[in-house]
Amino acid sequence: MKEEGNYANRPSNTAFTQQRLPAWQPMLSAGVVIPGFLLIGLAFIGIGVGLLITSRSIQVLELDYTGTETSSPCYQCTMSNQSNCVCKLSFSIGTLFKGPVFFYYGLTNYFQNQRKYGVSKDFNQLIGDVSYFKSPSSDCQPYQRVNGKPIVPCGAIANSMFNDTFKLYQIINGKEELVPFDGKGIAWWTDYNIKYRNPDYTPLKNAFNDTEKPVFWTKPAYELDTSDASNNGFINQDFLVWMRRAALPNFRKLYRRITEGNYKDGLPAGNYSLEISYNYPVISFEGTKKVTFSNVSWMGGQNEFLGIAYLVIGSMCVVMSVVMLIVYAKFRFPEED
Amino acid sequence: IDCISHFTFFYYPKLYTPGQRNMYFNRTSFLLCIMQSCYNSLILFFIPYAALHDTVRQDGREIADYQSFAILLQTCLIIVVNAQIFLDTWYWTGINHFFLWGSMAAYFALTFTMNSNGLFFIFPTMFHVFVSGTGRNSLNQPNTWLIIFLTCLLCILPIVALRFIFIQTSPTINDKARKYKMRRDEIPAISLRPPATRRVSKRSSYAFSHSQGYGDLVTSQKFLDKKTPRRPLLFVKSLCKLAHMIIFGFFVTFTQL
């Protein structure tokens, strides 16, 4: 047995290699767990109460206008071979609907989260790269070409853009007064400024030579908003809102805000009439369409689930801490080796 | 890694019995692990779903869009898995701290980097998938953080409660040893004798060769017993981690697209 041979192969005797590093050794002791559960339970109950109160103070008004029942004002629009159908929905508001009021359109049974639908777009076109106007990506199939010409913007998401338009009137003394809508800044800032850009052509129409508009659209992309160049083309706010696809089958998307003129404090009580130009077909897949008026708070829109969930979990935590205290008291940890 | 040092195991060999008896790695514990993973997966999806299905952001825009939902679920998952590791680690050296807190910090740093504008401009083909702006836009909502808080605690608290109750009602021998060590601060240090280089028996080799010998040992076939795994505890924990990540990780990363 050579002493030097042994010492040459021996691992170094540092704290790191011999696993003697200084360490914190936590332990699930009663002094930590039981008060911890109690504190968490009380905090959750507090948060839950706050959330419920906030949620209850939010006003929401939802109107379905699919028109499946014969009594609905939009019933005649659901007949086939109807185009440019306009229907009017009347409703009344009892108390002041506090502003700023947000106006949404909602769809149900609409699966924007389906995989093939979701990848069916060409982001290169949408960033303004004109070379892809001539040859759209094959992800856009079957909305890639029509009549031998490439579609811009191609893909199923763009093709299925929501095209109902709305006008809101307040009935004052028998006369209809238009409620002004604000359509600026309804999409994400990053979508509007970074992710989607128009091609660098003036006029914009020249970039779209030898291309076709999507099959379902009535106007091409460069005519989405002819009155405002910063809302035309791919950076049109409604287009951006639609392209940001929803995760769930029943969703609502922001259409406009009501913040201007006489209505900046909200919608006063009274009778209203909503004029809808009904273009978007949803009956074929048993979906529904609705509009929603809502105001928002620090936690967003009205959603009682979070408040109730916090209350329930908080009370369960308090109950569990009591149970654990009983268990600890009864099964006192035996002091044996 | 246990807080009990190898000296303790040397002098209290009964502490090895859980490993030898496969107490930490058997079908029951694996099934429990799978059930816990399923419970976590259901919580991780349905709580955000119920909380987001009919609401909007603080500024009125849509909150339940595809990428925001995915980021929310991913953040919950990362926090839950890291918290599980936190609960399972009994011996926190500097390395443990670095990797645990470092992985959470790295997740947030990477999310904000991948979703930043700069990276989108440099690599528009690669990063269109990780849509620019999602991290910032969805994680600045108080609603989102409340959902994350609720989901993570709902996944972790049952585990803590069950573990506490089981430690109190039916402690394993390792739990008892840890408790003993916590109370006593340290097990009395007994100096290890230097390894014997010579036989300590006082009998001569002639007498030894005429003693009973090892015939009984060979004929009883005791030496044919299978070797037990050395570190079953770590293995089953890493298997649990793997089950967590497999059952949910594919779903969440796939939804990022």
Automatic annotation (TrEMBL), chain A:
GO biological process: phospholipid translocation
InterPro entries, A to Z: CDC50/LEM3_fam
One annotated GO molecular function: aminophospholipid flippase activity
Compartments where located: Membrane
One Pfam family hit: CDC50
UniProt KW keywords: Membrane, Transmembrane, Transmembrane helix
Primary location class: membrane
A cellular component annotation (GO) from this entry: endoplasmic reticulum
Top-level division of the source organism's lineage: Eukaryota
Keyword Cell membrane: no
Coiled-coil positions: none
Transmembrane regions listed in the UniProt entry: 32-53, 308-329
PANTHER family (UniProt xref): CELL CYCLE CONTROL PROTEIN 50, CELL CYCLE CONTROL PROTEIN 50B
Family membership: Belongs to the CDC50/LEM3 family.
Protein name stated in the entry: Cell cycle control protein
UniProtKB/TrEMBL annotation, chain B:
Cellular compartments per GO CC: membrane
Domain (P-type ATPase C-terminal): residue spans on this chain: 8-168
Domain of life of the organism encoding this protein: Eukaryota
Molecular function in Gene Ontology: metal ion binding
A Pfam family the protein falls into: PhoLip_ATPase_C
InterPro entries attached to this UniProt entry: P_typ_ATPase_c
Subcellular location: Membrane
Membrane topology listed for this record: Multi-pass membrane protein
Name the UniProt record assigns to this protein: P-type ATPase C-terminal domain-containing protein
Organism (species): Oryzias latipes
